[in-house]
Design brief:
The protein is an all-alpha fold. The chain has 10 helices and no strands. The longest helix has 24 residues.
């Protein structure tokens, strides 16, 4: 299947999930919304569980791609980590799947695929990737932290202290996630909170 058609199916599944619990999402409705047959949907994902895993994997990729963009913005380490925290808080508030991935709190409305790898049910390379292990909350913290250290060290926008930089990144990410549950006041509340915490951390 062409990537665009696969994305259409995942878009249809995501839209259906916004309207009803995953348990009530029917494969036939997802296929119809994407303009393909139900058999095509099963050929691509193998099962509803396979569709769920692919959907969760795509939302994880969306989050990590946004992290890359935030880390690539201009400014010093504080600016880039603040942008990363802002993106994290914004997407987690807006996207229930990303929120569950980052916090580990899967509501009954959401698909809850096992995070461990499962036997591959399809010869489609993208599906084999979805059959692999899905990231847990701690994996995201580690991935974002390590990526931030690499990008910021290479850009020369950070102090040459990888351990301190890693602590700053973890701090920014954990503050962002705390803001998902309890949003701070003000339009720029997350950025102000994270920026202030990083100022104190970088001075120590």
């Amino acid at each position: 299947m062409m990537p665009a058609a696969r994305d259409s199916l995942l878009d249809a599944a995501f839209t259906a999930l916004a309207r009803r619990p995953w348990s009530a999402v029917r494969m036939v409705d997802v296929a119809a919304a994407a303009g393909v047959s139900r058999q095509t949907l099963y050929n691509e994902f193998g099962s509803k569980e396979g569709l769920a895993r692919a959907l969760v994997r795509r939302e994880a990729d969306t989050y990590l791609a946004g992290v890359e963009r935030a880390l690539a913005t201009t400014g010093d380490a504080r600016d880039r980590l603040t942008a990363t925290a802002d993106w994290t808080a914004w997407l987690a508030r807006d996207n229930a799947v990303v929120r569950a991935l980052l916090t580990g709190c899967w509501s009954e409305r959401l698909p809850a695929p096992t995070l461990s790898a499962v036997p591959s049910s399809s010869a489609v390379p993208a599906q084999r990737r979805a059959d692999g292990p899905l990231p847990a909350p701690g994996d995201f913290v580690a991935m974002v932290r390590d990526r931030a250290v690499t990008v910021l060290a290479a850009s020369g926008s950070a102090q040459p202290d990888p351990a301190g930089l890693a602590r700053c990144c973890e701090l920014a990410l954990r503050l962002a996630l705390s803001c998902v549950a309890a949003p701070p006041p003000g339009e720029n509340g997350v950025a102000e909170l994270v920026r202030g915490a990083l100022d104190r951390q970088l001075k120590d």
